[in-house]
Amino acid sequence: MRSTPVETNALKTLSLEHLQVLQVCENIRIGLKKNVEKDRIRRYTNWFKQEYLDLHFDLEEQHIFPLLGSNVRVKKALANHRRINKLLSCDCDNERVLNLLEEELSTYIRFEERVLYKEIALHATPEDLVHIEKLHDRISFSEDEWQDKFWLP
User: Fold this and answer.
1) Domain extent at residue 74
2) Domain annotation covers residue 101
3) Is residue 87 part of a domain?
4) Are 151 and 35 in contact (CB under 8 A)?
């Protein structure tokens, strides 16, 4: 294990995306508070899952988490992925499920930022992180592509 983290654009880029995911969570909160039709919010979360989150989770599960081996934090992250996917895959669009989704997703992102990615930076080699950066370049997320901005005034 390295005593100091490796600085790299790969983890910085992923951290910037985490800010975007936290904005998605805020958008869900605003939509619920404004009593936006739940199916509109659900269409947004389905789009988010399909266009970004599935790809992001695959990148983490196949290329980032293996850098840490089988440890308790990776197991927690994988369990979080399963819970988030269950909430996103639920046929229901009720307020409770959307609240749980928002809470689970925002808590998980903070765990990744505060704990998991810091540990990865300590264990990964510069070559590992360059590889992740190349793979990550294939993932693009922009909320601007979504037309129904129900969270705006």
Assistant:
1) 9-140
2) yes
3) yes
4) no
The dihedral through the CA atoms of 101, 29, 46, 107 has a sign that is negative
Counting the structural domains of the chain, the total is 1
11-53 per-position pLDDT tens digit: 777 777 888 889 999 999 999 999 999 999 999 999 999 988 9
Question: Has this prediction a pTM greater than 0.70?
Answer: yes
Contact 57, 92 (CB under 8 A): no
Assess if residue 153 is contained within a domain: no
Contacts of 80 (CB under 8 A, 6+ apart): 104, 108, 111
40 belongs to a structural domain? yes
- Going from the C-alpha of 106 to that of each of 24, 70, 115, 122, 134, the distances in angstroms are 9, 24, 14, 24, 26
42-61: buried (b, 16+ CB within 10 Å) or exposed (e) per residue? bebbebbbebbbebbbebbe
Cβ-contact 88, 52 below 8 angstroms: no
- Is residue 144 a contact partner of residue 20, using CB atoms and an 8 Å limit? no
